[in-house]
Every structure is written in C-alpha cells, then in structure tokens.
Amino acid sequence: MSRITTIIFDLGGVLVDWNPNYVYHDTYFGSPEERKYFFENICTSDWNEEQDAGRSYVEATQELVEKFPEWEQQIRDYYGRWSDMLKAPIPATVEVLRKLKETRKYRIYALTNWHAGLFDVALARYNFLHWFDGRVVSGEEKTRKPFPEFYQRLLTRYQVNPEEAIFIDDNLRNVKAAEELGIRSIHFTGAAELVKELERLHILL
User: Fold this and answer.
1) Is the model's pLDDT at 157 over the cut of 90?
2) d(Cα 58, Cα 76) in Å, to the nearest integer?
3) Can you give the pLDDT at residue 168?
4) Which residues contact 177 (CB under 8 A, 6 or more apart)?
5) Which of 40, 108, 145, 186 is buried most, with the most CB atoms less than 10 Å from its CB?
6) Where are the beta strands (DSSP E) in 43-198?
7) CA-CA distances (angstroms) from residue 88 to 15, 81, 85, 114, 201?
8) Do residues 111 and 136 make contact, with C-beta atoms less than 8 angstroms apart?
9) H or E stretch including 7?
10) How far apart are CA 61 and CA 10, in angstroms?
11) For the domain bounded by 6-17+87-200, which CATH number is listed?
12) What is the pLDDT at residue 205?
C-alpha cells in the first residue's frame, strides 16, 4: 500500500447529522405511506441533488409547487425549514478529524455535495468545518459526486496523488466512484468502525 498523505472527508452523514426526517417526522404526514410517496415522487433525493449541483432552490421549489400544488406546504418546508434538518455535529467523527489534524501527518480535505448558500449556514454554525486544508463544495463547482470530474477537481486543485489518499463517505455509490479513480475509500457506517479501519491502516495509532 502506498504511503497515505491525504484524508478526504464527506460531510453530511459523516461529520454532520443532516436528515429531512427531523422536519418530516412521524407526525408530519397523515400516514407513513404519505411520507413515502412524498420522498419517492416529489422531493426526491435526485431532485435535492440538482440543488447540490448548483440549481437555485427557490427555482426548484417554485417548479414543484406549480406541478404539485396540493403538496405546497410540504414542498416549501423542504428548504424553508432546511436549517431544522441540520441537527448537529457527529461528535465521535469530529473527534477522529481532530486527532488526524493534531498528528500533522496528513493533509485533510472535504469533498461534499452541498448547496453553496446552504453550506454557508453550516460554516457559520460549526467551527470544525474550518479545520480542513481545503474543501470542494458541489454547489460552488456546479457538479457533484459521483461524477468523476468532481473528484478530479479536488485532486487537481490541491495536487493530491490518488494513490496516497483515503476517501471517507457514507454513500456507497460515492465510495465506488472514488475507487474507480484509484482513491482508496472507506464506506462510513459509524465512527467506531471508522476508527478500527484507520487503525488497521496505521493512520490512527
């Protein structure tokens, strides 16, 4: 294995607990089936990723309201109450980030699918997001994971050798895309498992 010099973190689901269900909880809809329909047919993950890649969430909201007027309030709450979905840091993973930073052995970057304007909310809220040596945010780049050019922008911008990098993401799709570019990756399923894997790789001792 090549010497690891660089650690690349995803943010949402790894370091930050963001989840629409904090707004659309069990009592928000009339039934579980109604909530399932909403996320599978209206405010879908694919729709949200369009905004992550730079589309205006105002434009996206208005388009859906015109298409599904009977769901207007639910649609408007997606971005109208977005900050309520941004729950908190994931403390155990933030501690991993802190320990890696303190070793001074690695360059540490963030590669995240996140709307540019909404990312500013997180930057103002969480100090640890300023610990990175650099970051690449999809909303600023107008492209996103899992597209290869998004990963490549980080590699090129910060002169990262993919063979010397570790990428950490909770989305298996994004992990596989990174591996296709030669970036060794860890599918994040929890902080304890991440620590074990980093210890196995002699990155955390």
Assistant:
1) yes
2) 9
3) 98
4) 145, 146, 147, 148, 151
5) 145
6) 86-89, 107-112, 134-137, 165-169, 184-187
7) 9, 15, 9, 16, 29
8) yes
9) strand 6-9
10) 26
11) 3.40.50.1000
12) 81
Dihedral, CA of residue 172, residue 173, residue 174 and residue 180, to nearest 10: 110
Express as a percent the part of the chain with pLDDT over 70.
99
In DSSP terms, which residues pair with 171 in a beta bridge? none
Where are the chain's structural domains?
6-17+87-200, 24-80
Please answer whether residues 170 and 176 qualify as being in contact, where contact means their C-beta atoms are separated by less than 8 angstroms.
no
Confidence check: pLDDT of 1 > 70? no
**Could you tell me the two tokens for 119?**
């990312």
Counting other chains too, the contacts that 53-61 makes at CB distance below 8 Å and 24 or more residues apart are 53/113, 53/138, 53/139, 53/142, 53/143, 53/144, 54/115, 54/116, 54/138, 54/139, 54/140, 54/141, 54/142, 54/143, 57/115, 57/117, 57/118
pLDDT digits 0-9 by tens, 91-142 = 999 999 999 999 999 999 999 999 999 999 999 999 999 999 999 999 999 9
Burial grade of 184 (CB within 10 A; 0-12, 13-18, 19 or more): middle
pTM of the model: 0.95
Distance CA 16, CA 22 (A): 13
